[in-house]
Fold this protein.
Amino acid sequence: MNIKRNHPSLGRTMVVRGFDCFDTPPIALEPLFIHEPLLVGVTAICEPFAGAGNLVTAMRGRGLIVHASDIQHRGCPDSITLDFLKMSKRPSGCDVLLSNPPYAETMTMIEHAFQLGFRIVVFLLKANFASTEERYERLHPTGHLRRVHVLAERLQDMHDANFTGKKSSQPAEHSWFVFDRSYRGPAILNPVSIKNPHATMPWQPLGRCAQCRQTYPRQRSTSRFCSDTCRQRAHRVTLRRKLA
Ligand SMILES: C[S@@+](CC[C@H](N)C(=O)[O-])C[C@H]1O[C@@H](n2cnc3c(N)ncnc32)[C@H](O)[C@@H]1O
C-alpha cells in the first residue's frame, strides 16, 4: 500500500520503507565532532549502515579511517556489503561505531554493537528516541546513554532515496545519541546548532542570595538578591540596624 503523502517515511509500512535509505547531510557531523569529548583522539570508526557514503566520506575527509559497510551496495566508496546483524567481529583496532542507522531496529543494532565489543556507539536518531516504554525497559536500565546532542535545526534534504513522490521539508527533529559501554548513569542533554556549530550554551551562572542564602540564576554579575522580596527584606534589616 502506498500512502499518498509528502513525508517520505511517516505512515509507510516496512515493506514500503525497505531498508530506511535516508542519507544524512554531512553537515550534521560538525557540532558532534566539536562537542563530543569521547570522539577526541579517535582515529578509526565503523559505519555499518553506510548507504551512499555521506557520513563515511565526510569522516574520511577529517582524516579518520572509516570501515564502511551496508546490507546493500548503495554507492559508498571503499565499502563492503554486509548485514550488520551478521557482523561477527569488529574491524581490527576499531571500537567506535558512528552512523545514522535504520530506525526500525535501532535497539537491536545498539545491543549487537555492544555484543561485538564496541566501546562507543553514536547514532543520529529522532529526538524522541529515548521516550518509549520499550526504551524504558530495554535501554535505560543499561545506563549506557551518556549524552544527547540535540540539534537546533531540522535536517533538511534527508529523504528516503527510494521515495519518488514530492519531497517535503523535514518533519522530524534529530539528535546525536552517544552510548558508552562503560557508563552507567543518567544522560546529559547538550543543545547544539548546525548553523553555529562551535557555540556552547551560555549557561546562566548561579548566585547566592545575600538575604535568604538560596542559589538563583544570576542575570547580572552585580546582582545580590534572588527576588524583590529579598531585596526589600534586606533593606528593612539595614534600616532597623541604622535606627537601633
Ligand atoms: C538511514 S540510512 C543511513 C545511511 C548513512 N548512514 C547516512 O547517514 O547517510 C540506513 C542505511 O542502513 C542500511 N541498512 C538497513 N538495514 C541494515 C542492516 N541490517 N545491515 C546493514 N545495513 C543496513 C540501508 O541500506 C541504508 O543504507
Observations:
- The beta strands are 44-47, 65-70, 79-81, 96-99, 120-126, 145-151, 174-180, 188-192, 206-208, 215-217.
- The radius of gyration is 24 Å.
- Residues 206-243 form one domain.
- Residues 152 and 193 are 5 Å apart (CA to CA).
